[in-house]
Amino acid sequence: MKKIFLAVLTLGLLVSCTEKTKQEPKKQVTTIDISKTDASKMKAKLNQYAKVPLTTDLSKLTAKEKKMIPLLIKAVQTMDDLFWYEAYGDKDALLSQIKEANTRDFVALNYGPWDRMDDNKPILASFGEKPAGANYYPKDMTKEEFEKSNLVGKDSLYTFIERNDKGELVAVGFRDKFRTELMKTSSYLMQAAAFAENSGLKNYLLARAKGLLDDDYYNSDALWMDMKTNHLDVVIGPIETYEDQLFGYKAAHEGYVLVKDMEWSKKLAHFVSFLPELQRGLPVAAKYKQEKPGTKSDLNAYDAIYYSGEANCGGKTIAINLPNDERVQLKKGTRRLQLKNVMQAKFDKILVPIADELIDPSQRKHITFDAFFANTMFHEVAHGLGIKNTINGKGTVRKSLQKYASALEEGKADILGLYMVMQLHKKGELGGDMKDYMTTFMASIFRSVRFGAADSHGIANMVRFNYFKEKGAFIRNDKGTYTLNYEKITQAMNDLSSLILTLQGDGNFDAVAQLVKDKGIIPAQLQKDLDRLSEKHIPVDIIFEQGVETLGL
Ligand SMILES: [Zn+2]
Question: Which of 118, 143, 117 is nearest to 131 (CA)?
Fold first, then answer.
């Protein structure tokens, strides 16, 4: 879910990480030859990403906060080389061989020679497929060998699996592998802590500085959940396990430096208090809405001012939901972070150009950032509505719907997000014209179907597009633009909400499979319309210009 996805890039000019200590991974190539054709193809690939600066309102920062930010950025930058090593291996050896600038930039953007937005296809012909286990396991290790091994710590989030001189598997902790780099990270966090005026933030930074050296994040995760009034925030460490496609065991290093939007965060806390009432009003039979949504979850808006490591590769995330440690979740809940300036960038660079191409001119005035922000934010909140456990003893919805679980859950969050907006708007809690929210919602469908059928959000949006079409929620004009029918879209929203909640509550795997088969597709006509977006070079995602200079510090 962290991948509400998508999700930048600047390579730290830091010490080349690590691998001085242990055996180097085998170099996959010795020479890289780039023809001219490849260079222009690379340019086109790079152009799929719009470059945007990451900034924030400096006038809201105290003098001490301005001293903390460069230190937090330095700490987070150290994550970059660690992630490079995890994703690929020897970054410098690879990049120094690539003489063609576009290709080098594109490889750097992907933290390795595989295209993350195109199913990890090799960027350079001389590379084969990306190893499923990235660089966390020996390339010659089979799943069977790993499973048979009695190695202690093999399934730890925080170890590499390597071979010793005898060829046996050994586990090497991140804290040992990256000792030199993590000492620096830790030192930067402690220096920043010295300037912290907020005691919660100070305690967290000191605990995180220690946790990184021990590969033990329990205390710092708990302290992070306790922080409520901090203005600055930092997310740093080995966190998500997407990079390990072999077993999903190994965490990847990443970091974000964030500045909380105090005003918006206050509004968000207010909206969360409506969750129980909105749950009761869901447009579905009573038996599917008996669970009580939690109102403890902490929802805040931020400006992101630095991304590094896994957070910065390929597409960029616009929302974060952490921590992942279930022990901390049970005790303290989770925190949802909405990255407002990054959403704004995606809105300006991607959504508006899409709407200018595909939404009927008479309705384009309804495409607004406030609506986009609200829809995205309420998507996050809406994950907390509905039903987590089936009503017929089949266990959790997630378990019974298996591979379709996340697509349906994302589809639910999208549609119930709009439902929440409509209810809060009716109550006068949310300003603006309801048509703004609906039209912007429709344009977002076009944005998200571009993620493709390999992505849960992509599938969810295809299903919704086809469902809306069937219900007459929009029509396609001869000129290839789309006009919304605002009356019918309301009905379609209610019907689709009911359908999804019922399928989830029944844990009806077969019916969901059928729905995805029938509607989780891009009709030929829509594909042609989407092709126009590519022809017009409307970016698919964004990359960042970031750092103290960009901030003007
Ligand atoms: Zn989601």
Answer: 143
Domain ranges of the chain: 36-250, 350-544
Task: Give pLDDT, residue 23.
Answer: 35
Cβ neighbourhood burial of 136 (10 Å; 0-12, 13-18, 19+)? buried
Distance CA 191, CA 179 (A): 18
Q: Which residues contact 164 (CB under 8 A, 6 or more apart)?
A: 170
CB distance 242 to 132 below 8 Å = no
Query: By the 8 A CB rule, do 384 and 453 touch?
Result: no
Tell me the CA–centroid distance for residue 12 and ligand 1, in Å. 30
CA nearest neighbour of 110 among 16, 236, 243, 251: 243
pLDDT for residue 516 = 95
**425, 432 contact by CB (below 8 A):** yes
271 CA distance to ligand 1 middle (Å): 18
Strand, helix or coil for residue 163: strand
- The CA 513 to ligand 1 mean position distance, Å, reads 20
- In whole angstroms, give the CA distance from residue 463 to residue 323: 30
- From residue 256, alpha-carbon distances to 42, 74, 305 in Å are 28, 11, 7
70 by DSSP, 3-state: which? helix
| Chain centroid to CA 321 | 9
Q: How far is the CA of 510 from the centre of ligand 1 (A)?
A: 23
Contacts 24+ apart (CB under 8 A), 360-367: 360/477, 360/481, 360/482, 360/483, 361/481, 362/483, 363/435, 363/439, 363/483, 363/484, 364/439, 366/433, 366/435, 366/436, 366/438, 366/439, 366/440, 367/436, 367/439, 367/440, 367/443
Residue 8 is predicted with a pLDDT of: 31
**Residue whose structure tokens are 């974000």:** 256
Q: Report the separation in Å between the CA atom of 84 and the middle of ligand 1, taken as the mean of its atom positions.
A: 27
The reported pLDDT for the residue numbered 399 is 86
